[in-house]
């Protein structure tokens, strides 16, 4: 049964999502980064990938409408929504101009561990529902509209170990008053230009267990976190899978026939063990 599917940077669009539905029952990894899939395509996928654990929709045109459909993928652990049109709010049905939270839908994902909302137009207030996602261990944000309030939304996340709030308008007083979760080990503040070296040094003295990443303190780790956080998690996940029995070769006749006349073709798995489906144009 097919478990891993990488369609990234292909010409695949919403009209081809039905092909994934046909083989989605056992999918655990699905990479749609840089495709033409929209929120409509995500709605088609919802309810048909019960075992999906890792999903990338980065660099697609999805918006907040997609979140309610993503919430119907019950096994999700890692979700990459970076560089999309997600704002964190959505018009409430049956009302004129009344906005409600869209990120509240993610509270339905009981196993969610890692989330990237980098380069999305979210605001501080829009992020408040994430404080109820108690399983989050990695959260990556990058937006110039975020302020000190974002840090304080994260205080109640007991398992949070890695937090990135990059290129935000964080202040010295906001960092000073931040009470990080006990589990936090990495705080990425790169691009937060208002922070001073004295303020960061004081934070480090108060919380020596936390590694702070910022240009002015020259505390760069060996591995990049911000924009490659989810990518790294994907790669770690795949390395783990290579040590187990590979069931992906059991690709059934019906599944092959379903793909035969689709706008993409099945190639051999690459060195990571993922089947790459490339668009035929």
UniProtKB/TrEMBL annotation:
Cited PANTHER family: PROTEIN ZER-1 HOMOLOG (PTHR12904:SF23), PTHR12904
Organism domain of life: Eukaryota
Family annotation (SUPFAM superfamilies): RNI-like
Entries under InterPro entries matching the protein: FBXL15_LRR (IPR057207), LRR_dom_sf (IPR032675), Zyg-11_UBL_adapter (IPR051341)
Domain called F-box/LRR-repeat protein 15-like leucin rich repeat: residue spans: 129-212
Protein name: F-box/LRR-repeat protein 15-like leucin rich repeat domain-containing protein
């Amino acid at each position: 049964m097919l478990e891993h599917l990488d369609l990234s940077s292909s010409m695949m669009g919403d009209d081809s999502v039905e092909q994934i539905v046909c083989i989605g029952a056992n999918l655990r990894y699905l990479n749609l980064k840089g495709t033409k899939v929209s929120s409509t395509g995500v709605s088609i996928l919802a309810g048909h990938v019960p075992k999906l654990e890792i999903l990338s929709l980065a660099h697609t045109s999805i918006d907040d409408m997609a979140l309610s459909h993503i919430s119907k993928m019950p096994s999700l652990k890692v979700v990459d929504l970076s560089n999309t049109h997600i704002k964190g709010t959505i018009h409430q049905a049956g009302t004129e101009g009344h906005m409600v939270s869209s990120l509240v839908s993610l509270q339905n994902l009981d196993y969610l561990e890692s989330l990237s909302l980098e380069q999305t137009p979210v605001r501080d207030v829009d992020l408040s529902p994430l404080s109820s996602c108690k399983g989050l261990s990695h959260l990556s944000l990058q937006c110039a509209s975020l302020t000190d309030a974002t840090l304080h939304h994260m205080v109640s996340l007991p398992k949070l170990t890695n937090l990135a709030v990059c290129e935000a308008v964080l202040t010295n007083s906001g960092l000073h008053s931040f009470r990080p979760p006990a589990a936090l080990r990495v705080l990425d503040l790169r691009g937060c230009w208002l922070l001073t070296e004295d303020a960061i040094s004081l934070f480090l003295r108060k919380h020596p267990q936390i590694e702070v990443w910022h240009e002015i303190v020259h505390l760069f780790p060996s591995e990049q976190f911000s924009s490659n956080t989810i990518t790294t998690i994907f790669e770690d996940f795949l390395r783990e899978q290579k040590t187990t029995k590979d069931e992906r070769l059991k690709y059934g006749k019906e599944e092959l026939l379903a793909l035969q006349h689709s706008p993409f073709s099945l190639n051999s798995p690459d060195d990571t063990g993922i089947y790459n489906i490339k668009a035929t144009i």
